[in-house]
Design goal:
Elements: E1 5-8, H1 22-25, E2 29-32, H2 41-44, E3 50-53, H3 60-64, E4 71-74, H4 84-90, E5 94-95, H5 102-117, H6 120-128, E6 152-156, H7 160-171, E7 175-179, E8 190-192, H8 196-202, E9 205-208, H9 222-225, E10 232-236, H10 245-253, E11 257-262, E12 282-284, H11 293-311
Parallel strand pairs: 1-2, 1-3, 3-4, 4-5, 6-7, 6-9, 7-8, 9-10, 10-11, 11-12
């Protein structure tokens, strides 16, 4: 009987060395590549029964060139990197891992909100640069500090992460409103609004937690920003493609937004730079909201459970 072969195309993001692939190795031969280019997939996955992938593109052409491939497992919730139709046509299950990073991403979103409200980077830099030591007062203001209790947080995308953010915000004394495309019930302290325009009109802070799809690419654009409250804070821990970065930069420069925080950009990594570079009260983190050790541990465990279910003939978390 042929030994099961598993190829992990880009293992370094989920496991940079602090976790173990031991549970996967119990299933058969495991080959781990820290990173892979799209052009390397066919050669590296030759003879593989199972591919484990995070962000490497697996196209219809790639799938056709891998006759032994029987399963594609994702080390992510999103699955846009795989040609789902081609996989389905071949009868290859594509399985993701939902909700593993909910707590970590919610924590990160709240961190960005509170940091922007406090002008944290500007105030910390005033100490680091010695400006505080030169100040005649015991305190040094580098911009208005905003108290979030009593302010309204508008959540766009009221799924598991949006709900987790709302729960923390309510505990902080914020009013929370949310909008979601599909009908759903709200949680204690959260009011669902009828439209996006209503949310933009009423929110002091806006946090994005929606999926990226063809209908909402660059949804945060000049028109969107023209409807927000003057001086609103905007946070994006969802997908970089939701935001027109040039429009956000203009909104920061003219005061429409008092702060912007994101863990995602349209281009990752931003090898060509970003319009947001150097903007005042703008905090960009390098797509790490999901990456706590606890979340990554859950991710690997769930990915292994997905494979076990497939091998038992009952695949779970299939995305088509």
């Amino acid at each position: 009987m042929k030994k099961l072969k598993i190829v992990i195309l880009d293992g370094n993001c989920a496991n940079p060395g602090d976790l173990s692939w031991e549970e996967f190795e119990k299933l058969g031969e495991v080959v781990v590549y820290p990173h892979s280019e799209d052009s390397q997939v066919v050669e590296r996955a030759k003879g593989a029964d199972i591919i484990i992938d995070n962000k490497v593109n697996i196209t219809a052409k790639t799938i056709a060139a891998l006759p032994d491939l029987k399963y594609i497992g994702l080390l992510s919730t999103g699955y846009n990197v795989v040609d789902i139709a081609a996989a389905k046509k071949r009868g290859i299950p594509v399985c993701n891992v939902p909700a593993y990073s909910t707590v970590s991403v919610a924590q990160h979103a709240i961190m960005l909100i509170t940091a922007l409200a406090a002008k944290l980077t500007a105030h910390a830099e005033s100490v680091r640069s010695g400006k505080w030591g030169e100040c005649k007062n015991f305190c040094l203001y580098k911009g208005e500090v905003i108290e979030l209790a009593g302010k309204t947080l508008g959540i766009i995308g009221y799924g598991s992460i949006g709900r987790a953010v709302a729960k923390i915000a309510v505990a902080m004394g914020m009013k929370v409103i949310a909008c979601k495309r599909h009908t759903c019930s709200s949680d204690s302290g959260v009011r669902l609004v009828e439209s996006l325009d209503e949310l933009l009109e009423k929110a002091d802070v806006i946090s994005l937690h929606c999926d990226l799809n063809a209908s909402n690419v660059k949804m945060v654009n000049a028109d969107f920003l023209s409807k927000v409250r003057k001086g609103a804070i905007l946070v994006n821990t969802a997908r970089g493609g939701l935001v027109d970065e040039e429009a956000v930069r203009k909104a920061l420069d003219d005061g429409t937004l008092s702060g912007y925080g994101a863990d995602v950009l349209a281009e990752e990594p931003p090898v060509h730079g970003s319009a947001l570079t150097g903007a005042d009260n703008c905090i960009i983190t390098p797509h790490i909201a999901w990456a706590s050790r606890e979340a990554r541990t859950r991710l690997l465990k769930a990915a292994k459970v997905n494979i076990d279910a497939f091998l038992e003939g009952n695949p779970i978390n299939v995305v088509y």
